[in-house]
Amino acid sequence: xxxxxxxxxxxxxxxxxxxxxxxxxxxxxxxxxxxxxxxxxxxxxxxxxxxxxxxxxxxxxxxxxxxxxxxxxxxxxxxxxxxxxxxxxxxxxxxxxxxxxxxxxxxxxxxxxxxxxxxxxxxxxxxxxxxxxxxxxxxxxxxxxxxxxxxxxxxxxxxxxxxxxxxxxxxxxxxxxxxxxxxxxxxxxxxxxxxxxxxxxxxxxxxxxxxxxxxxxxxxxxxxxxxxxxxxxxxxxxxxxxxxxxxxxxxxxxxxxxxxxxxxxxxxxxxxxxxxxxxxxxxxxxxxxxxxxxxxxxxxxxxxxxxxxxxxxxxxxxxxxxxxxxxxxxxxxxxxxxxxxxxxxxxxxxxxxxxxxxxxxxxxxxxxxxxxx
Length: 373
Hints:
Domain VanZ-like: 23-129
Pfam family, one: VanZ
Organism: Caldimonas aquatica
Number of domains: 2
Keywords: Membrane, Transmembrane, Transmembrane helix
Transmembrane segments: 48-71, 83-104, 116-136, 215-236, 243-265, 277-295, 302-319, 339-360
């Protein structure tokens, strides 16, 4: 099989990073284990366990096996080799993390978890090999060749990650990338009582910023939808298909934001994120995206850079309201801890990764678009 560039490899790495974060969070109070670190391999059945723990350990590694085996298949390896590679990588990752949990007092390593993780990865790899045998991967490649440019894999991974980034509570609808407050206080803590403590001091604490005016919130919502749209345009030939992609992005953004609100405040408040400015901002974003549907890919990358920068300025100028702070506490201390890592880091870093990608698209060579009928 010919080797092809695929978005599955960066997605697999991203998902592996999620597993590392979820397995070792909160990364504090490391200490030497009381027994040998490998003793968990021969341990008995855990004394405290729930059905949720068993299912989550099995299903948690399934996407990793699916993505890793799919990436290996796309690289031209055979089905058996791809499945074995995915299972070996998942087993090594799980064994390493279970071993490291010996050094965290709040975590308990388990051979049952290790076995379930490997089984989940094997199940995911089997799904990938089955999809390959059924021809679904070839169909996806044909679809991608018609809809996207050859250099699209990294950007596609960013597009797929965008709805997940919206699952972490945001200060404004579609307002990912608010890092100023945390970065500023982390800087103050790091340089306290050092000669650098007066080097960067803001006149107003970011947490005390006044609320954005409705007009600026409207602009932020519009840019929040246009930014991923321009990212998609930088990956696609200028055809009518872009209009379909924008509609799918809008649906995904709406669904992810509604799900996030429902998880934090209950199903009865699922649409509570919709403010007076949201419907108009959503409409303006869709309309502008459709007007720009035939923008050349390189021009779309430049427009995406400008829109992301504008969005980041507005999002980081927005205050952290009490409901937002409450939802953050629920994610960081409550029942969402297993999903805390991926959503938090995606919500913070997605626009900055998109900025770097779009900048690389601007500076790199542009492949000739394939415009299919």
